[in-house]
Every structure is written in structure tokens, then in C-alpha cells.
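Changelog-linked ticket: zinc ion example.
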Amino acid sequence: MNTNSEYIDLHLHLDGAITVKIAKKLASLQGITLPAKDDGELNRMLSVPSDCASLNDFLSCFALPDSLMQTEEGLREAVRLVMDDALSQGVIYAELRFAPQLHTNGGMTQEQAVAAALDGLKNCRLKGNLILCCMRGKDTADKNLETLRLAKKYLVKDGGVVAIDLAGAEALYPTKDYKSLFMRAKEYGVPFTIHAGEADGAGSIRDAIEFGASRIGHGVRCYEDGELLKLVIDRGIPFEMCPTSNRQTHAVENMEDYPLTDYLEKGVKVTLNTDDPAIEKTTLEEEFRYMEKVFGLTEEQKKILQKNAADAAFTSDDVKAQLRKRLNL
Ligand code: ADE
Ligand code: ZN
């Protein structure tokens, strides 16, 4: 078996995975008129702008996909279609993340949103789990606590909600401001990953690790702090890196300095992921190819990335063993 044709995606946002085809299906299912005159325009609306200057610009792409997932039916179908899309691209296990609080504009409660997403997960063909995102923002504290409460209520080892995350504009709303949320997550025994070191510096990663994050979303800017890098290596904290997303959001000033292979060589438990494949116009296979072509990623390093992903997955030891076996790791 060619191990490169099958993948694990640990960092995949639902609203960043709504393709033109899925958007049209969701719109027609719910009788929604799309705000685009043709597929070309819709595609542009569902793409990172060519002049994207930062994560803040990048995040402006999510209003349209989120507007199509404000009913139980829309959200359930979106989860099913996105997971099946990933399966068709060689993904064999995915952790799909979404923020329940972004699906309440049409009257759904966060709990109804979680139930609808779970329904979609049950009805898709790809093996996977859900990560519930809390959001960085001005008025998100109560909503985040509700998301955490739901994660605790629905938490399973496999086949459902397995962790929480913190997503959104990292440079505007620093990780340190979310300490009490993650202290409570720890108290509740809810595992978490945190987007950190993507639009903010190494201090953000340090905060996330101090809170008790099991994994770090991106972690790109860890190189700014040598001691922190050593801590990450010593503790074996996995990084969920997403090269195309990191290039588009300018997580590093110059992509030539993108540290993924350097981190790998130093022993960081790096994993390779898509983040928002539809709006970035990528797949996990393309991410591997990109790393290979531009950064000389070797076959051995590809295997290490895949093994790190199997080891770092928020799933049972049984499923991890199955993934390692299937990928010949
Ligand atoms: N939501 C979707 N993609 C994201 C990213 N790359 N960083 C933070 N929040 C996000
Ligand atoms: Zn992300």
C-alpha cells in the first residue's frame, strides 16, 4: 500500500471545508438563495482573498459558510458532506472542529447544534470525531462556558465529542485572557487543543501549554523562544501545522523560513493538516506534496508526520492502533 495516499487530518474546520458544491447543496436543501450570481462568484466568496494580509482577513471568509449552517438540517448535512469529501480525498480519520456558538443565529441552541453535528457524524462514512471550538472575542465568555459544559456532557473516547479548542483572532484576543476557561476544562477532564503561535508569538504557545493544552493548533512561532521549543520537545506536545493556511495568513513573514521541517528534525511531534481546505483550495494530499516539493520533505519524514498524527489523535488506543496498522507505521 502507498502510505502517502491515506491521511489523518487533526485540524479541520467545518466552516472552512464548505466547497462550492457543498454550499449549493446546503442552500438548495434549505431553500436559501445564495448571494452570488454564478459559481465563479460563489467560488471567490468561498476563497481566501488574494490580498489576504493576516489571519484577521482570512477569518472574513467564514460568514457565508456559517450562514448555510443555521438549522439542524443544514449543520447535519454539512458535517456529513464535509466528512465524505475528506474520505474521497484519502483521509481515513478526521477530527472535525466547529464552534456551536456560531450556529445559533437561526434559533438553534448550542446543544441543538452539537446534537445535529453528532447526527451528521453518525451518518457519514469517514471515521472521525468532533472538537468543539470556543471563540476568541469580546462577548464570548458565557458562550464559551456553555460550549465547555456541552463538551463535558457529550465527551466520549471515540465517535463523538472528544475535546475543545480556542479559535478566532489570536492577535486581537490573546490566549492569556482564556485562562479561567481552560482551568475549568482541566477540572472537568475535557482535553483541549488551542490555536496558538499562529497570529501571535511564542508567549501564546507558552500560555496554552501552561493551561494544560494536549496539543497546539499551528505553533508556528515557537522558534521565537528556544527554551519553549525545548519544553515542547521534552514534553512531546504535538503541533497541528497547516502550511497553506500559514502561508495565506502570513504566520511567518517569509515562507522560506517556515519552520515545519526544522521542528521535525529537532524532534517536535509535528502533524500535517489542512485547517480550512475549501477556502484555501487545498487537500491534505496537496499539503504533503507542497512540503515535499518546496521543503524537501522526505518519505521518512512523511511517515513521522503520520505516526505523530495517529499518536496525537483524540481517540481511543484501539483506534490509534488501527490507524497505525492501516498506514503501515
Ligand atoms: N478558524 C478557522 N480557521 C482558523 C484559523 N486558522 N485560526 C483561528 N481560527 C480559525
Ligand atoms: Zn484552525
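Closing comment: Example verified and attached. The CA atoms of residues 76 and 116 lie 5 Å apart. The pocket of zinc ion (ligand 2) is lined by residues 11, 13, 167, 195, 217, 275 (CB under 6 Å).
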